[in-house]
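Our working data are protein records whose layout never changes between entries. The record below serves as our worked example for the rest of this section:
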Amino acid sequence: MQVPMVIEQSERGERAYDIFSRLLKDRIVCINGPIFDDTAHVVVAQLLFLESDNPSEPIYMYLNSPGGSVTAGLAIYDTMQYIRSPVNTICMGQAASMGSLLLAAGAKGERRSLPNATIMIHHRQPIDIVQKNMDRDYFMTPEEAKEFGIIDEVINQRPMALVADAVGGEGKDKGPEVQSSL
């Protein structure tokens, strides 16, 4: 896979970044694909770096994952809980299995999903339902994931407050563009 490059110009000249380094500069971490040790290694390092850079600023984690290794996922989960920076999670595409755990591990009130994403958990709660559904996975729409408590909002487009945070400025319109499931 070729990684796109982004060229930025400043008074000092031009600088080329791979797209993921440029996103990291804006405190954006992407998890795309299965979660294995190599993915966890990079994501944990990114989270620790961003916390050391500014522990009070939020980190934005975009998830599109079918899941993966439990130990690799728990390394990311534990780091998300350990660092002082709040981690705001956004599901795009899918968050299945370990991906849904990481989605739910985001900062309370800051767990979001795009409207056409799919969220999957292996078992439902309470225990009688878990026992009944042990042999099958449970796929949810974003609205169902909100009712279940995995996410806080379904968004159609980025709220202006997130745009302002991403570019380091103040958003003029702080009102969220949220699709309500009520």
The longest strand covers residues 87-96. Confidence is low (pLDDT under 50) at residues 170-182. DSSP finds seven helices and ten strands in the chain.
